[in-house]
Amino acid sequence: MTTIVLPPELLTLIFEHLPQSDLHTCTKVDQLFHATATPILWRSPSFLHPASLHLFSRCLTIAKEPRGKLVRSLHFSELDLNTYVDDDFLLTIAPHLPLLDLLDLSSCQSVTDRSLIPLATHCPALEVLLLESSPCTLRTLFELAHQCPHLRVLNLRAAQNLPHLALLPFTRHRHLSSLVLTDCRWLADDTAQDIRRLPRLRSLELINCRSLSDVFLRALATGDLTDLMNVYLSGNPALTDAGIVPFVEAHPALHEISLARCAITDITIHTVAARLPALRLLDVAFCAVTSAAIRTCVVRCPDLEMVGLTGCEDAAAADFPELGFEGGELDVLWLDQIAMIRTVEMERLEREMLEAEEMEREGAGASGAELREAEIENDGKDNEEGEGEEEDEMEQED
């Protein structure tokens, strides 16, 4: 009987699709399976119940081989786990995770500066850190900015124990590209001075940040955020055309912009249409915008995939008859609907252009005829004047 031995590369591809329980079984088959399955098993361990947290911590501390170096991501945000993740637990596992690059501590409110500050030292390879609803303070952010140079994604949603200068340590950070500050009441217009100095920032989420005004956006417009692609500003009626228009004009590479419940008008929509040719997502729910402005945006933004229109009274379903809606409110325009509107608008614009050209030709023809009539009339007058002069000369000779 011939035994077929699969190469480790092929085994790796197979094992990556197995659940954690099956991977654990594979480690007990033979040396090849053990060597191939173990790194995958430890790369991103899942925790099915609170007892698994204790087991994970114990395995890290008593294992003969440093299994912690295999761990790349940890998620503790599940509701039945986050109450068991505290400072003591994090202080126990952090020293064994030197290559950890993703850590989700969302809603782990028992994790404070006491463990987060050492975490920055023990896990310098961190790239993604989610601290939603965290009680952390400026001390933690200072350590993260200086000890984790590869940090790309920072989520501080609803983290309320921070001052308005909390982002100052990250100014000129080389890799920070995504920043989530939704529901942060500590934000102020002055915070823009720190955000505008994040040269690699690509995504900025500021939903329900009602402490910010147009002054904040105008300050961002003067920054060096050339890579900014996604901005979410929904839920702030203090933001108006006066702030959003210069912000849009300063960031022509935007792909997604959310302005739901902001105090904008068609002025902002026309600016978006003129300045954001690569736009893919536009959310203007509950804004005072019209269907005419939306149509202009659909035509001018060829990559547009979604437009949020919930609660827009002047952009109702009846204003888009080509979509075949009988009436009522229109919540979202999706890609196929946007394509239909664009086709109708392009045909209308083409007809108007042809009509304008035809009218111009007719006008030119009418002008030519009038010019010829004027020339004939002038020639007649000249002839009459010439004949009159000849008669006068003849009378003088007589």
TrEMBL record:
Residues 384-398 have a biased composition (Acidic residues). Coiled coil: none annotated. GO terms for biological process: SCF-dependent proteasomal ubiquitin-dependent protein catabolic process. Residues 1-45 form the F-box domain. CDD domains: F-box_ScMDM30-like (cd22143). One of its GO terms (cellular component) is SCF ubiquitin ligase complex. Pfam families: F-box-like (PF12937). Gene3D superfamilies: Ribonuclease Inhibitor. SMART domains: LRR_CC. Residues 355-398 are annotated as: Disordered. Residues 370-383 have a biased composition (Basic and acidic residues). Transmembrane segments: none annotated. InterPro entries: F-box-like_dom_sf, F-box_dom, Leu-rich_rpt_Cys-con_subtyp, LRR_dom_sf. It comes from the Eukaryota. This is F-box domain-containing protein.
